[in-house]
Design brief:
43% helix; five-stranded parallel beta sheet; 7 strands; single chain; Rossmann fold; 12 helices; 285 residues; 12% strand
């Protein structure tokens, strides 16, 4: 800011006048009216007597069980995307297969997870291991594929996945994305000397937890691709879909309760088909 020189008249004897220079100084800026009001209000507030604030007691409420479960699921998803924790201890206890043992690992989602309880009755005496996790999509399966399949050193892996991708469980997913993940799991298994059984996606007309996605034609398209891909790379294609569909390309009545997950009758059909596909895979070199 420029410094002004201030001059005032200086009376002299004899009637003369001159200008006397004052000490240079910076002029004060005038305070705006609004600033002055704000200053006064702040000053009044600072000087006013203080009244203690009494907080109202907040009544304790019971947490909503559904919200608690959702928060737990969200936390698990963020901190362990592929859910390695689900089978970590079981994998350590399982150990390596015995000499001559033809271990089979079933890799999948809730359909595989729900099937395991029937394994003793449907596959008696067989060293079959279930590694399904409810709600999982093929990218999650791919991330944990080494820990839950390769490290267990099976002779055969039976892969069943893709329906939750179509349902959008971990976000939007295209048919090509599902195919890529299935190809990646197949290639990893074959590179480790493990025979591959690629299971068709089971028929679904509509998902009860996400209506209106019209999954049936998408499932048919994925299965058609899977059959051709399996033939091309020497894997076995296991067709559950053809044996379990109805006229709408949905799950046939009597084979499931929600149109997605098989019941015991549905699993029995799957067990017969899986046994043949595993035998076929084991016969291949």
């Amino acid at each position: 800011m420029a410094v002004r020189q201030m001059y005032v008249p200086d009376a002299r004897p004899g009637g003369g006048a001159s200008l006397r220079r004052l000490i240079p100084r910076t002029p004060c800026l005038p305070m705006r009216h609004s600033q002055m009001c704000a200053f006064v209000l702040l000053l009044c507030a600072a000087c006013a007597p203080r009244t203690p604030v009494v907080s109202a007691a907040i009544p304790a409420t019971s947490p909503d069980p559904a919200m608690a479960r959702q928060r737990a699921a969200d936390s698990a998803f963020q901190n362990d995307y592929a859910n390695f924790a689900r089978y970590r201890a079981a994998n350590m206890q399982l150990g390596a297969p015995a000499a001559g043992e033809q271990r089979v690992v079933f890799m999948g989602n809730s359909i595989t997870e729900g099937w395991v309880r029937y394994f003793p009755a449907m596959f008696p005496g067989k060293p079959y291991v279930g590694r399904g996790i409810g709600g999982q999509t093929t990218p999650q399966m791919l991330v944990r594929f080494h820990a839950d399949v390769i490290a267990l050193r099976p002779a055969v892996v039976v892969i069943l996945g893709g329906t939750n991708d179509i349902a959008g469980n971990t976000g939007p997913s295209t048919i090509e994305m599902i195919e890529d993940n299935l190809m990646a799991m197949t290639e990893i298994a074959q590179a480790n000397g493990i025979r591959v059984v690629l299971s068709s996606v089971l028929p679904v007309f509509d998902y009860p937890w996400k209506r209106g996605l019209t999954p049936a034609p998408k499932i048919v398209a994925i299965n058609a691709w899977m059959k051709a891909y399996a033939a091309r790379v020497g894997a076995v294609y296991l067709d559950y879909h053809g044996a379990m569909r109805d006229d709408r390309e949905g799950l046939r009545a009597g084979l499931g309760d929600d149109g997605v997950h098989p019941n015991e009758a549905g699993y029995r059909i799957m067990a017969d088909l899986a046994a043949k596909a595993i035998a076929d895979a084991l016969s291949r070199r």
